[in-house]
Write a structure and sequence with these properties.
alpha/beta; 2 domains; FAD/NAD(P)-binding domain; globular
């Protein structure tokens, strides 16, 4: 068998979503030559792993990327999935991003001159690699999922598209963050009774004091909070997303709203035995904690509004009533007996994890997550983009990629520049 040809470039970016493209723009500004390798088309995950009715949780004005921003006439609306895909595609074109699509990375490993990136369309040699392949590649499913009776269909939030794909009958949804609550609302409205198993979540009003919650968090600097200013960053990186939904009427979607629709609330889905689903007895506690966290966030906003003399301009602070919790939520449900449970479908909405099975550089922890310091790994020249609270609280938002890319592209440019100088010095050494 002949030798595989190998191409050379200074930097390889893996992933052509908003994070990889933001990094591309920042590297281009610093004249660092690079190529983006993408397994599908630009914005692949947005195209293939989201349900049909999903809208972005952030308002259109918050779609800000390096050298590019929303120009439409509905700044306070929320993008549909086709609109998100178009926005990211338009960005790739506007910055003339050097994307090689339909290229699957099969391995990344270190060698003496940097990294070898192998793909199904040839190999690359580079001095630096940016991992922008996304934080949500694999939907989390609990170990006990294989005990679900065969009469019940199991889906993840990644596989769910619309109520039309579901059998008639009840739906049990595990997880009450942004995905779980939105899917629960849509399915309940379709006429299928929903039971929502509620774990840790953060309640949030869509509009507070007359302005979008994201406006407040942006203005008050909450989203710009840095990873090195947080007491327990490991904990902060695991915090679930806010219970927000981007609806045309800007309504708040919380457990009380779901209750009003007729959704049944139970505790966290913790196990299955003899065909019986087991739920934690912590529902009341989880809801109280969620209300407390919401209160703290709104206190921060109120203090900022007061300090910036905004109190007269905006509505007075009105808080949502406490989350209503059933007196005795069931701790068990007989899934094996359809006439008792009525459950035909289970949807796992308990989060995601990245997939780095192709990464042969020793930077992963025991859970397969990349160990990093604000996106900089212990392997020189290997960087991360788009991870939760990577450098700032907004790191996973489209709006957060720009600041992170500006920081990390600076670090990367100095690293490859220093390596190049060192190599030149060695060449000219007597």
């Amino acid at each position: 068998m002949g030798m595989r040809s190998i191409r050379t470039v200074t930097t390889i970016i893996i992933g052509a979503g908003h994070a990889g493209l933001a990094m591309s723009r920042c590297l281009a500004e610093r004249s660092v030559d690079h190529v983006i390798l993408e397994r599908g088309e630009v914005a692949h995950t947005w195209r293939t792993e989201r349900w049909d009715s999903l809208r972005l949780l952030t308002p259109n004005w918050q779609g800000r990327l390096p050298g590019f921003r929303y120009q439409g006439d509905d700044p306070d609306g929320y993008r549909t999935m086709p609109e998100v895909i178009s926005f990211i595609e338009d960005y790739a074109k506007a910055i003339a991003a050097p994307v090689q699509t339909h290229t699957i990375v099969t391995s990344v490993r270190r060698d003496d001159s940097g990294y070898v990136v192998r793909t199904d369309r040839g190999d690359w040699q580079c001095r630096a690699v940016v991992l922008a392949s996304g934080a949500c590649n694999v939907a989390r499913v609990p170990a006990f999922a294989n005990l679900v009776p065969p009469s019940i269909t199991c889906l993840t939030a990644q596989q769910y598209r619309s109520p039309a794909q579901l059998a008639d009958g009840g739906v049990l949804i595990a997880g009450a963050s942004a995905s779980g609550t939105q899917v629960a609302c849509e399915i309940q409205r379709s006429g299928r009774p929903v039971t929502l198993a509620v774990g840790e979540h953060i309640r949030a009003p869509r509009v507070y004091r007359g302005r979008d919650l994201e406006w407040w968090m942006d203005a008050a600097g909450v989203l710009d909070e840095r990873y090195d200013e947080i007491d327990d960053i490991a904990r902060a990186r695991k915090v679930p997303s806010l219970q927000l939904a981007g609806t045309p009427d800007h309504s708040t979607l919380d457990l009380n709203a779901l209750n009003d629709l007729g959704v049944t609330l139970v505790g966290r889905f913790v196990g299955l035995a003899d065909g019986k689903a087991q739920f934690a007895g912590s529902l009341r506690n989880m809801c109280a904690m969620s209300d407390l966290k919401m209160g703290r966030l709104l206190d921060t906003i109120d203090a900022w509004a007061r300090d910036h003399d905004l109190d007269a301009e905006v509505e007075p602070p009105r808080r949502l009533p406490p989350t209503r919790v059933p007196d005795e939520p069931p701790l068990m449900m007989n899934l094996a007996n359809f006439s008792k449970s009525n459950i035909r479908t289970i949807i796992w909405a308990i989060g995601y994890r990245p997939d780095y099975t192709w990464l042969e550089v020793p930077v992963l922890d025991h859970k397969g997550m990349i160990r990093h310091d604000g996106g900089i790994t212990s392997s020189p020249g290997l960087y991360l983009m788009g991870a939760p609270f990577m450098r700032r609280r907004k790191s996973t938002l489209i709006d957060g990629a720009g600041d992170d890319a500006r920081d990390l592209s600076g670090h990367l440019a100095s690293y490859v520049g220093a390596r190049a100088e060192h190599a030149m010095a060695l060449q000219h050494a007597p």
